Amino acid sequence: MPRSTLLPGLSPEVRACRLCAAELPLGPRPVLHVAAEARVLLLSQAPGTRVHETGLTFNDRSGDRLREWLGVTREEFYGNKRLGIMGMGFCYPGVDARGGDKPPMKICAPTWHTRLRPLLPNVELSLLVGQYAMTYYLGPRRKASLTETVRAWRDYLPEFLPLPHPSWRNTAWLTRHPWFERDVVPELRRQVKRLLMI
Q1: How far apart are CA 127 and CA 188, in angstroms?
Q2: What's the pTM?
Q3: Count of CB atoms within 10 A of residue 127's CB?
């Protein structure tokens, strides 16, 4: 099921967005899924190439790991209106000199999150996936590093739950920090099960 549901009234505007068109190597293709029924809002980085091609959020190996953390199936992830997904950038930003994805376009979140987030009154928990979402949503409450922020996850509940990005590039981070899968993932699954009613 394509993850392209948007709130009434904003769908054409978001789909027509061309603010960053000149800087996007594959052109604009906003990818997000939000519905008024959302109770969990997953705030991530920006689409990768596979997501850009398919229009499905987290339609890659990092998505497989994320779904494992959440304790949901692919069908539950893509078919539950209680789960909203917005990147800090809605379009694929390109690759940096080291071969990783570039940061999300800086204009995207201030332009669109400020308009979309107030239209999601039922959201009880926002999952902050990666440093860009943590920086934007936690502001000065964010700790000095991603690791410290994730380690202090209890400080941000019940509104936010900070998570590392599920990219394969973070496998070493997960190995060095076993407390994440031991302590954070079970709480994440408990919250997701409760709020998505699965």
Answers
A1: 9
A2: 0.93
A3: 22
